[in-house]
Amino acid sequence: MKKIGLTPKKWLLTLHILFAAIMFGVTVTFLVLSIAAAVTTDEGVLKASYTSMHLLAKTSVRASTIGTVVTGVLLSLLTHWGFFRYYWIIVKELLTILSIGIGMVGIYLWSSKAASIASVQGMESLQNPDFLVNRTCLFIGISLQIVSLIAMFILSVFKPWGKRERKSKLSKKH
């Protein structure tokens, strides 16, 4: 019988995957709520959808993003993967910066504005050009967030492109 190696690295990787899963799940929830808000004729559903999104943006999005980034940094620091040794990790780092901008800043601000306008104007929000532009930005941000998270999952599983070539000191002299 094979012994299960419960190493600190495996615990850290498990936490990283859990935080990323929470982040993805919350983003899919945003998508569902934004679709519900877009098709509803019920003022309560409109207000509740945007209020819920803003609540999630203030809590779950922040916690899962911070948790994913911290565990990802620790995995890079404490394992052979490093920060810049592999192209796929560099791409994940760039996508992470995009996700932080979209999730912790964009979705937070757009959901806050949508919740504020909807709470005051109700269904009349749908006649407000500022609300409609904000709602579109929120939907685009949610879509980009989902795509970037899926891309990061794919990169983590397939690890394409291999290791970066190191330039030797001899080649620098020539």
Structure description:
The protein has 6 helices and no strands. It has 174 residues and is mainly α. The termini are far apart. It is elongated.
Keywords, separated by commas or semicolons:
174 residues; mainly alpha; elongated
User: What's the shape?
Assistant: elongated
Mean pLDDT: 93
- Strand content bin: under 5%
Class of secondary structure makeup = mainly alpha
Gyration radius, in Å:
20 Å
Secondary-structure element series = HHHHHH
**What is the distance, rounded to the nearest whole angstrom, between the alpha carbons of the first and last residues?**
56 Å
Task: Compile the SSE list and pairings.
Layout: H1 8-39, H2 43-58, H3 60-78, H4 87-121, H5 129-158, H6 169-173
Helix pairs in contact: 1-2, 1-3, 1-5, 2-4, 3-4, 4-5
Give me a quick take on this structure:
This protein is mostly helical and 174 residues long.
